[in-house]
Structure formats: C-alpha cells, structure tokens
Amino acid sequence: MIEHQYDLVVIGSGPAGESAAMNATKSGLSVAVIDFRKAVGGNCTHQGTIPSKALRHAVHQIMQFNRNPMFRYVADQTWLSFPQVLETAERVIQKQVSMRARFYARNRVDLFHAQAAFKDKHTLELTYQDKKVETIKAKNFVIATGSRPYQPPEIDFNHPRIFDSDSILSLDSTPKNIVIYGAGVIGCEYASIFNGLGLKVDLINPGERLLAFMDDEISDALSYHLRSHGVLIRHNEAFKSIEGFDDHVVLTLQSGKKIKCDSFLWANGRTGNTDSLNLAAIDLKANRRGQLEVDEHYCTQQENIYAAGDVIGWPSLASAAYDQGRSISGVISDNGTYRHVNDIPTGIYTIPEISSIGKTERELTAEKVPYEVGKAYFKDTARAQITGEEAGVLKLLFHRETTELLGIHCFGDQAAEILHIGQAIMSQPSESGGNSIRYFLEHTFNYPTMAEAYRVAALNGINRLF
Ligand SMILES: Cc1cc2nc3c(=O)[nH]c(=O)nc-3n(C[C@H](O)[C@H](O)[C@H](O)COP(=O)(O)OP(=O)(O)OC[C@H]3O[C@@H](n4cnc5c(N)ncnc54)[C@H](O)[C@@H]3O)c2cc1C
Ligand SMILES: NC(=O)c1ccc[n+]([C@@H]2O[C@H](COP(=O)([O-])OP(=O)(O)OC[C@H]3O[C@@H](n4cnc5c(N)ncnc54)[C@H](O)[C@@H]3O)[C@@H](O)[C@H]2O)c1
C-alpha cells in the first residue's frame, strides 16, 4: 500500500474539478486530481458540452452552405452523415484533452486515473482498472464527479436503436428519423442538430412548453422555428413504454399514441455521480437524484469536504462549474477568490441559439415591477442582412423609472456571445447609474455589428417611455 498526503484531493477532472485544482495549486497547496477516465476533461469534454457543441457547429455550417445560393456556383447542396460530423467533434475533444493535460503537468498537479471511494474523512481508496488498490490522504476534498443521463429501469438502453445523450455519440449510421423524448436543453439542442442533418425529428415534451424557464417569447420563437423546419413537437405527453425491435423502435405514450422510429433518444433527466463514492463512510447522503447539498461556500455537512458542478444540481452548467470549483479553492486557501456563483447566464445552442440573463417578463409581472421592453429584430440590422442570419430578436427588459437593465433575452445566431455585452452593463452598480439602458445610446457602436442591436433595442424601449 502506497500512501500519499495532499492539502487537497479533487475527485473529477471536469470544469469544477479542474478549476478547483488549478486555483489551489496557484496558491501553493499540494494537489491531486482523481478521474477514472484515461483522459482529463470530464464528461464536459468527452460526452457533454464539447462534443455536442462541435457537432452543432458542423451541422450549422452544412446548413449555411446549403442555404446560401452563392455556393451553388461551387457545388450542389450536400449532406454529411452523422459519423462524418462526429469526426469534427473527435478532433476538438483531442485538442481539449491535450491542452488540459498540459495544465496539470505545468502546474505540478498529480493525476491518478482510478475510481475513488471514501474510506474516512481524510482517506480515499483508489481502484485502478487492473484492480490494483491504493489509498490517498488529504486535508480537504472536492467532490466534482459530475452527472450522467438518468436511465429509467424499464427502458432497455442496451438496445442498439435506443440512446441517451452519452451513447448517441457512438451512433455509427445516419437514421432517417429520430424520436427525442425530453424537451429540456439537451432534447432541444439535439432536435436542432438532427433536424439540421436532414432527419425527420419528433420532439416529445413531457412539459407544457419548450424550455419553460426561458422568457415566453423566446420559448415561442424556438418552437416556431423548429416547427417551421419540420420538427414535430408534442407537448404534455408522458411515455408509457419504449420497445426496441430489429429495425425500429415503438414509443407508446400514456395518451395512447404510438410513434414508430428508426432511433430513439432519451433526453430526460440526469443523475449525480455519487453512488460509487461510499458516502456512508463520511456520513453524507445524496438526494434521490444523486446530488449533494452544500452551503454558500460549497461545503457539505463535513467541514473538509466540498462539492461543485453537476453533483450539486442547479444550474448544472460547465460555465458555473468552473466558477464554483475556483471558489472552493478560494475558501480553502483563503486567497481572496471566493465568490458565490449566481446571476448565471443561459446559453442554449439550438439552431438558432438562445441566451438570457436576469428576469423574464413573467417574473417581473408577478413581482409588479414597472418595466418596459426594448426590442431589436435581427432582420432589421445590417450585419444580419449581410450574414444571412436574419432570424432572431434581442429583447431588453428595463425599469421604466430608473432605466436599469433587469433582463436580457436573445434568440438568434451568436446569441450566446451577444448576451455578454448586456451582461457587462447589467452587472454595474445601479446606484451610480452604471446599469442603465442609456449606455447603449451614449456610446458609439461599430457598424455593421450585431452589437448594434443593443442600440436599436434601447431606442425602441426608451421611445416607449412617457
Ligand atoms: C449533451 C450535453 C450538452 C451540454 N452543453 C453544455 C453547454 O453548452 N454549456 C454548458 O455550460 N454546459 C453544458 N452541459 C453541462 C456540462 O457538460 C456540465 O455542467 C459539466 O460537465 C459539469 O462539470 P463537472 O465538473 O461537474 O463534472 P463532469 O464534466 O461531469 O466530470 C466529472 C468527472 O468525474 C469523474 N468521476 C466521477 N465519479 C468518479 C469517481 N468515483 N472516481 C473518479 N472519477 C470520477 C468522471 O469520470 C468525469 O470525468 C452539457 C451537458 C450535456 C450532457
Ligand atoms: N447549452 C447548455 O447550457 C446545456 C446543454 C445541454 C445540457 N445542459 C445541462 O444539462 C442538464 C440536463 O438537461 P436536460 O435538458 O436533460 O434537463 P434535465 O435533466 O434537468 O431535466 C429534464 C426533466 O427530467 C427530470 N429529471 C431530472 N433528473 C431526473 C432524475 N434523476 N430522475 C427523474 N427525473 C429527472 C426533470 O425534472 C425534468 O422534468 C441541464 O441541467 C442543463 O443545464 C446545458
């Protein structure tokens, strides 16, 4: 038995684990990271954010090529297979892995590729693939083990035509059609990807509307856009059974409908990776979704054991996981980098994209806040006319008396980037007038840009005041 001693041991090398490790080592702590995968980067790099975003980008490029009449001088419309576009994702994953592996080497963070389980509050047992076992000791731990797709026991996920968001990345052919069950972020993003690849897509939503947490107008815009491209959306439907056959799958809904398809993607729910950690040894218990409870410092009920990322539940985003991990090391090393991570923007990579921050109209109305709306439609901006990405809207919600920005909601190409301009203004202190929609009228914007949409939307909103 070899024994190690560290200031901090992090379980999981996704965004939460990586940022916790890097911030701690920069503050002079001795750090080790454990991940049972052979390559670093976590599910984020291997099965979640990175492959889905690379796939989506490749599909978007094919769509742009096929839509643009100018390219007809060069070649006819063309369609690529799913395995062909997956190759792009594979290239990006490799680049991410080698870049991230260098971070650990350069910053002298020890990496162990093994399954970790607690023995006690200061000891982990590491089990390697060859069944070799060793223990590792540390003053503090960060649990950053992420999440995996929730798999209801009654569905046969071993069937070659039934997939979840992990196994879909091993689809080795291009089906003619696909049924996606679950219309959360994953379901909607994959509906866009498969629709863009030319598949017939049925999107089954157990809820009342797509992405119900978004501003209603933006959620409606997405529904309209997906439907206008041929996606069949059914709301308020729950599954009864999913049966796999040699050459098809049949989804039976509780409403009595039966849907036949080539392939089926389950995109409903995720479970925190806590079942293999032997939490009982440290007197911790996960909730029914495998998630851990933490306080405002991301500390569990054990004072030396912290948790961040998907394993603590909301918002389950790579963006937030990076900041949470860094915050934990800010607490442990007292290096001034602790920040409670809130006011998190949403970036949803449907085609077109969606992004938002702050309050929705529904929330402001319920809170009786006197707000006004300013909008800029992409089709009315020169930049969108040049790029041909004319579907979209930027919507600014602001207080009609103080003019402070209260919410920013954007639907359209590059929405996830465009949002951050408004976020920078919205995060200024309101008391000093820093957060005001007037910023967009008092500063000159490059022309033609999509940033100019802020000026157009601000004028539209200010003109409503009396
Ligand atoms: C399809 C999809 C698309 C997404 N797109 C986006 C997006 O566009 N933007 C965004 O911000 N977020 C997105 N997300 C969410 C994002 O991927 C997650 O929020 C993020 O990966 C969480 O990071 P994490 O650090 O908590 O852990 P993960 O990235 O989940 O990594 C955890 C690591 O811990 C390891 N591990 C687990 N248990 C053990 C153990 N016992 N011992 C050793 N190692 C262990 C795992 O092998 C894994 O490598 C997406 C997710 C999915 C599924
Ligand atoms: N662009 C992005 O930011 C992006 C893209 C994809 C995924 N994600 C993240 O991945 C997560 C998963 O997305 P999703 O669309 O599948 O939504 P989701 O998993 O959060 O929820 C889908 C539905 O399943 C239910 N559910 C969740 N976990 C369950 C469980 N363990 N058991 C039973 N039911 C459960 C939920 O209540 C909800 O009705 C989200 O939290 C999202 O933030 C982000």
Shape: globular
Q: How much strand content do the residues show?
A: 15-25%
Tally of individual helices: 12
Uncertain stretches of 5 or more adjacent residues: none
CATH structural architecture of the largest domain: 3-Layer(bba) Sandwich
Radius of gyration: 24 Å
**Percentage of residues in helical conformation:** 25-40%
Give the overall average pLDDT: 96
How many domains make up the coordinates?
3
Q: N- to C-terminal separation?
A: 76 Å
CATH topology term of the largest domain: FAD/NAD(P)-binding domain
Largest sheet: 7 strands, mixed
- DSSP E strands, number: 22
Which ligands, by name, code or SMILES, are bound? flavin-adenine dinucleotide, nicotinamide-adenine-dinucleotide
Q: What's the level 1 CATH class of the largest domain?
A: Alpha Beta
**What is the structural class?**
alpha/beta
CATH 4th-level superfamily of the largest domain: FAD/NAD(P)-binding domain
